[in-house]
Amino acid sequence: MESAPSVERYLIELARPAAGWSELQAVTARARAAADELRAAGTPVRFLRSIFVPEDDSCLLLFEAPSAEAAGTAGRLASPAVERVTRAVRA
Asked: Which of 20, 23, 44, 78 is in Cβ range 3.0-4.6 Å of 31 for a Cys bridge?
């Protein structure tokens, strides 16, 4: 019996879209769909939530994935505005 691959949490930082954050719900829906698509193809990615920080004019997408590359792929499927992928550590 194969063991499940270990997953980490990753934050995907998005650049502010030219039209602003008015499409944040659509980005969130695309992030969820991207994770579903990757999971169906055999990569265990799970979208957890979007985090909008109005004071910093920033948005983050939180994924569980086996690698930063897999999380980045999901993020880029959700939005072409991916600026950075970083591992998130629970405190």
From this structure: 78
As a whole number of angstroms, the distance between CA 7 and CA 80 comes to 24
Angle at 77 (CA atoms; ends 67, 51), nearest 5 degrees: 75
Structural domains of the chain ordered from first start: 8-88 (3.30.70.3090)
**CA 41, CA 73: separation in Å to the nearest integer?**
13
User: Quick one: pLDDT band at residue 21, thresholds 50, 70, 90?
Assistant: confident
Model-level pTM? 0.89
- Which three-class secondary structure state does DSSP give residue 28? helix
